[in-house]
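Could you please review the protein record set out just below?
***
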Amino acid sequence: MKDTARYKILIILVALVSILALFGGVMEPDSALYASIAKNMVLRNDWINIYVRGTDWLDKPHLTFWLAAASFKIFGITAFAYKLPSFLFGLLGAWYLYQLAKDIYNEKTGLISALIFLSSLHILISTFDVRAEVYITTFTLAAIYHYYKAHQGSFWHIVAGSFFAACAIMIKGIFVLIPVFGGFVIYWLLTRQWKQLLKLKWWTAIALIFIFIIPELYTLYIQFDLHPEKVVFGKTGVSGLKFFFWDSQFGRFFNNGPIKGKGDVSFFLHTTLWAFLPWSILFYAAVVNLFKKKNRVTLPAESIMIWTSAAITFLLFSLSKFQLPHYILIILPQFAIVTALFIQQLEGKNLKVFFTIQNVLAVLIVLILSAVAVFFGFTDYYIAIVVLVILLTASFLIFKGFRTENLLARSAVISVGMMIFLSIFFYPSVLKYESGMEAGNWLKKNYPQSKAAVLMYPDAYSFDFYANGEPKYFWSYEELNKSRDEKNLVIYAAESELAKLKKEYGAEVLKSFGYYHITKLTPKFINAETRPQLLEHFYLVKLH
């Protein structure tokens, strides 16, 4: 079998296994929040204003929600419909990665890059826990590809590149132009192509971007700038346009905007170690390898564009005061190309060394996941262990011999094992502790005519998504008093409110649910024996 055919089969295998994630639940907080926003767009038939719990919401641009809402219109308001667009755009991103690497290098590099990208751990996780980053990654990569082709002379690629760059902006904000154009600018400067900076086509590209983002600017202007009386971030006179261009971007970077965080310059160094598994060790070795001049001179000059696009974005993220692990997704395509080039250079002793490293890593992954299965107490946990062991053994028996093709195949099979483990065993077990989802589903099944509401708990976004209709939100007992006589009202409330609800409102408990913040897992939660100590409890109550 030709190597290219083998890589195509592995890519298809990873993509098919990733489909399993589409049938799981929507995770809190971000995924459930975004899904509930898109749900409200459909229920209200309002694609301009973004509301959370009935109040104006200013944070992310609209395109993530428009894509999910469009899917809801076609397939219904389900977790599958929410996840499907992101999954499809992820495949589109892999295709663009293949095209870019193929055009700069060769088809083999393109296929290996796409395989590495699709099988990296954070991409697998993001297929299940859908946020906005897969969209940004694809749109950014598509823009880079089309601008690369435009650099070679086609005007229509300028239009396409600007369209995708605008889509990326309407997902995350104006900062995405840094990974899109940063690599080109540094490449032109280092190769003394300064005149490119003055060419009309590139200024046309920027003009087109601003034309293509008009829908986002219009919606922000309509919802916020036309209504300075609205209270946003605890004050009036908030401009949606200013937030879009400045506060949401530079405000987060300098930590002086309305949404703050805290940064650690080493954060993305150790994030990459797990997010890019099982390729992270190979990637770090590839980066070190790039510092040796003899390893760079044989590569096309356009490689500078790939490396520097990733480097300046990585540096920007590392210096930022607002850091989250999923930000790294936007430059995983560049990481994949760098790793693919390095793997193809391995031979002799070096190949044996990294073959051994990947084998040890594969065994460690299987051991760690097996331990998680046992300690967590999965139903039929032994099936998860058997599946992992079979895949590990099969990869060793089928892909024998110290060849780069076998190194890639073994690593990809381990990724398949991780995806099966996450989608079939791990996440379904963990999601039982997402009480909002459990409560919303239970309420729909047992009280389909009920009117759902949430009492003074700001993070129950999965309940907002899974409960029928658009749940009411009571910010205070005064607000609850105005609706206490409403027929069929069922309230989702924290344990801290239960005593008052029973005493003063005669509340009847319909069902209780255990809760844990499942995106912040700890060993104590993984261990079934200590897990009950960490659980909070939420209740569905009916007032009398």
Summary: The mean pLDDT is 89.
